[in-house]
Amino acid sequence: MSNLGVTLDTGPALVVSTRKGLFFLQPKSRKHTAPMQGSSDWQLSNPVFLGHIINHALLDPRDGRTLLAAARTGHLGPTVFRSLDAGNSWQEADRPPAFDKAQPGEKARVVSHTFWLSPGHASEPGVWYAGSSPQALWVSEDSGATWGSVRGFNDHPEYEARTEDPQAGTPDGPIMHSILIDPRDSRHMYLGLSGGGIYETLDKGETWNPLNQGMASPIAEAVAPGESMETPHGSIAWQETGPQHDPHCVQMHQQNPDVLYQQNHCGIYRLERPNTTWERIGNNMPTDVGDIGFVMGVHPRDSDTCWVFPMDGTDVWPRTCPGGKPAVFSTRDGGNTWARQNRGLPERAWFTVKRQCMAVSSADPAGVYFGTTCGELWGSENEGDSWYCLAAHLPEIYAVEAVEIQ
């Protein structure tokens, strides 16, 4: 199947995946002689795949031209589309991610949707990875045309103990996300499971080990209103494997890949390898804000700088800005201190920002962008010091990526 696409200029672009299609934004001016201040400075494309859910779309940074989009369509079901000409034309994958047919006595698994896409190592052009619901890892060696199972994870004897039951837990189904490839070693990878925790492989996916030490986890049993829902690391009830762990987003610093950041269901964490115990740097956030949220963005050059978008995690877990006061928080010292960054944001708004909806550009200073479920796209060209609305009235935003078209 082919699909009419868009014509994109070379240079910076934002790839915006939504509940009703895929959009692109580019600066109207190719010359950045003055800071961009609002939606009038950006050109919004027509939608691609209008009416279809696009969970995630991403440009391949190795060639600057190949785009992949993970779609859940009304008639084709879950699939992956790809463009080899920077979005001008699209084709459906010949073989999208799909489980083998169950043998007699086996439990059948069916892909509900592909949730996450990650380009492979710089030394492996054409290699991509994908995470799905139910939780499984897939690999393509032909730029997304065909996909195969990474059996070291998907067929592991302890698969059911490590992952979350598709009928319980995470809204819209358990997902695999945050597939991270070490830029120094194509065999070294991380992935996140909601729920299930974080796993690491040193042999390109043949074997996997949990990396959840130091993380609190939600208690599965019901608790009374106002009581803690966390099982602290070290308690009798704490276990390293299992669906009780719920990392929402994990990021690796590309220039210092020993540094990992994580926005978890139970706080904000940092890990510096070779250590294996996460540090809850969210304990340093203001107590009236807390450290609950979904997104995590890291600075392209400074491994001590990251951004989060806190959301209300009290009582019924409304998943909106605490007190209806939206703000991004940043740290410049690895989480020891945090600064509120809300200049230009609405004084009162109940934004929800999903786990794939913050992006950080490679510009200097770095651009920071986030999208909301109410269809607003916000940006900062000065690393969060001030914000402006790039686009409004879009469909519910599922993912945002900052890319460079070649």
Brief digest:
With 406 residues, this protein is mainly beta.
Cα end-to-end separation: 25 Å
Nearest-angstrom radius of gyration? Answer: 20 Å
Number of folding domains? 1
How many helices?
A: 2
Residues in helices, as a percent range = under 10%
Strand content: 35-45%
> Averaging pLDDT over every residue, what do you get?
90
Shape: globular
Let me know the CATH homologous superfamily.
YVTN repeat-like/Quinoprotein amine dehydrogenase
Query: What low-confidence regions span 5 or more consecutive residues with pLDDT below 50?
Result: 220-227
- Kindly report the spatial arrangement of strands forming the biggest sheet: 1-8-7-6-5
Task: Please write the CATH class name.
Answer: Mainly Beta
CATH 2nd-level architecture? 7 Propeller
Tell me the total number of β-strands: 30
Largest sheet: 5 strands, antiparallel
The secondary-structure class comes to mainly beta
CATH domain topology: Methylamine Dehydrogenase, Chain H
Question: Please, could you describe this protein's structure?
Answer:
The protein is globular. The model is unreliable at 220-227 (pLDDT under 50). With 406 residues, the chain is an all-beta fold. It is built from two helices and 30 strands. The protein is 2% helix and 35% strand. 47% of the residues are buried. A five-stranded antiparallel sheet has the order 1-8-7-6-5, with no helix packed on it. A four-stranded antiparallel sheet has the order 4-3-2-30, with no helix packed on it.
